[in-house]
Structure formats: structure tokens, C-alpha cells
Amino acid sequence: MVTKRQLGLLFILLGAGAAVGLFVIDWLGAGQFQGIGPAQRRALLLAGGVVLLGLSLLPLDDRPA
Question: Whole-model pTM?
Fold first, then answer.
């Protein structure tokens, strides 16, 4: 069974991985914009929201999710 702490850690890893992935895509030169484009900004905000959701689950200890 998954606990809330484990679910929080999973969300943090997914959000951080998504943010890193967006920067890797930008580094590879995919897209039309120099730097961070509007779609990447939205995706970064969403990834940040996922990380914040994960952080909010961490203090809930080992209760089942």
C-alpha cells in the first residue's frame, strides 16, 4: 500500500523530472523560441504545482493514501 509520504515523494520526483526534461529539450534546440517559450512556461508552472503538491503530502507521515 502506498503512503502519503511515498506519494508526495513520487510527485516531487515527477515534477522535478518534468522541469529538467523541459530544460533538456530547450538545450537540444527543439522549438521555435530562443530560451523558454510560452508553452514551456506553462509546463514549468504545472511541474512546479506538482512539486508543491508533493511537498504538501510529506508531513502527513505514513498514513495510507
Answer: 0.82
